[in-house]
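@channel sequence for tomorrow's demo:
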Amino acid sequence: MVHKMTQIFKIPWAAWYSDKDFTLEFPDSWEVQLFNMKNHKEITSRTEIEHAIKNPIGTPPLNEIAEGKKNAVIVIEDISRPIYAGLITEVVIEQLNNSGIQDENITILFAVGAHRPMNRSDFIKKLGMNIVDRFNIENHCPYENLIFLGNSSRGTPIYLNKTYYNADIKISIGSVIPHPLAGFGGGAKIVLPGICGIQTLESNHQAAVRGIGIGLGFITEMRKDIEEICSKTGLDFSINVITTLKRGIASIFAGHYIDAHRKAIEVAKEVYMTKIPSNQKFDIGLFNLYPEDTELSQATKGLNIFLSTKKLFKRKSALILLTAATEGRGYHSLLAETGCRLYKNWGETILGMTVLKKYLFGIFSPNVNKADVYHFYPKETIFHKNFDNFIIELEKIYGKSPKACIFPSSIQIPVDE
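structure tokens (generated this afternoon):
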């Protein structure tokens, strides 16, 4: 018999599709704690955005950079990343127009890396109708329209989007969120992997996939390779956005792709900070993927939080990833498709095998099926589309009164209280 559900917790859900809270219900006998990040008031004022862009770190102002130039490319992260870029892009375009670069000489390029191409609906979500109706907007393709620029000092072959390479001014808009391989997003990462060829992506990712030089929240060897390559490809003006819990703008740092990015990281660590206890142990950890919950292929990022909080969990605790996965399985032509260059089921990786030996692993998502889950995760994975069914199964393993904790966002950075 199932307990009457009396404890209710709301978590953010379905980025870009509903962005409404999802309700998790637990029996009254469970001991459940929600660990929220510090968060930040959302910036909605155009004046504040203009101030950040007009007062860059490490570069001249954008209008000075644009003076006398003929054309520009604005590179923006795709729909798998959290920020709405419309208002920021409007400010950038105004600066370019005021410097003599007209609309027809401005291209907006989406840095999809090895992700799926964006469509018109995605463009409108990211930029707003006004911009979509005014400008030439392109998707990067990692297989075509590339130019070879030699190798990095670490041996990474540099294949770069040719439209970007040929632009007089190169501008980027990206979010600074924790990343398991590059430490943080933002800065030069919009160039690699965002607009590089598949050979470049493969070489840069290979060491990280093997577990070499990775680290959430640190300047990793992978990040250093990215920034060296960016120095060769060029990036004139980098706009770095820290996001709030609900995908709003918490803060902006513009300018040099390293200097402004490092300032953004300092603030990001404060905004995403999540205090965790040092003297508690939990039976069950629930890790929500919002705002990176558009597709199942992104879900492994939920383990970022776990890897930073392992001391909270008993041996054989349950680690449950929660994801809307509104687009289903998702797409990643380097890491996630059958037969692609670096595809591997998570259960066959060193990290996956290590975690599976010590913990029970599960996925909750209403928008995927078992075949989708087993494409990425081993068949020992517990999977349910209905959260009540997860409660029933977990009670069979941990009894009627387990201790559980919820982390409502994939971008949280846990620190000891």
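heads up for whoever presents: The longest helix spans residues 86-98.
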